Amino acid sequence: MSGGQGFNGFSKKTFEFLSGLEENNNRKWFESNRDAFESYLLSPAQDFVVEMGERLKTLSPSVVAVPLIDKSIFRIYRDTRFSADKTPYKTHLGMLFWDGPRKKLENPNYYVQLNKFSIFVGAGEYIFPPDLLRSYRNSVMHPRRGTELRRILNGIAANPSYKIGGRHYKRVPRGYDPGHPNAELLYHNGLYAYAESALPEEIYTPGFVDYCFGMFRDMYPLQKWLARTNHL
Fold first, then answer.
1. CB of 123 within 8 A of CB of 192?
2. 3 state SS of 69
């Protein structure tokens, strides 16, 4: 269920909670501040997901936006099973909108993250599923699709606020030409555009939806290219 009032922005108390959680990352503190979590993070996040989901349908008609924890809203609990860091809670709020039939993180997606002093807005695929990595690489090397991708990335990177992420490998994979004009894109195991900034004033207003959507619209050509490549 969403907060039900429509998205009116996050509040100063949203970021006070995140700051407090960072300083007191333990179950006792969280449980004593659960009402603040639900009122100042979860409820506005649900409203944001609903409104952003409707806006994103104008770009990606099949986008999935579900205003629930473990759907479009990432759970606040960390998975500490394989981590040396045993602190139980994330100190940020993440919201995801995915576009495709696979498990949500295996599709191209739109993502918004709120930290205590900053935001992260991105679109693309953070990590390619193993069975789609070859499709991506072949598309990068394809004369038409690879040229199209290069044009898209150059267009996005022309805005100094945007960066391209996902580079992971140190060498071109075996079987691919290291002299190809697009060879540097083969260093990627994911591909996404993103912007990071200090908290904008819009975050406290209904206009934060427009603020993020404007960036998603700029990044949409990459999202579209990835969605098409995943179906090759």
1. yes
2. strand
| Strand, helix or coil for residue 192 | strand
**Percent of the chain whose pLDDT exceeds 90:** 92
Is residue 187 over pLDDT 80?
yes
Question: Considering Cα of 99, then 103, then 107, then 111, what sign does the dihedral take?
Answer: positive
CA distances from 173 to 112, 124, 166, 231 (A): 31, 21, 15, 22
d(CA 230, CA 195): 24
- Give backbone dihedrals phi and psi of 159, rounded to 5 degrees, phi first: -85, 115
Hey, what's the torsion of the CAs at 162, 166, 169, 174, to 10 degrees?
Answer: -110
Name, in order, each residue with C-beta under 8 angstroms of 144's C-beta and a sequence gap of 6 or more: none
Q: Give the residue-averaged pLDDT of 42-64.
A: 97
Q: What is the pLDDT of residue 232?
A: 58
Whole-number pLDDT of residue 111: 98
Reference 91, options 70, 114, 110; nearest CA is: 114
**pTM (two decimals):** 0.94
3-state secondary structure of 133: helix
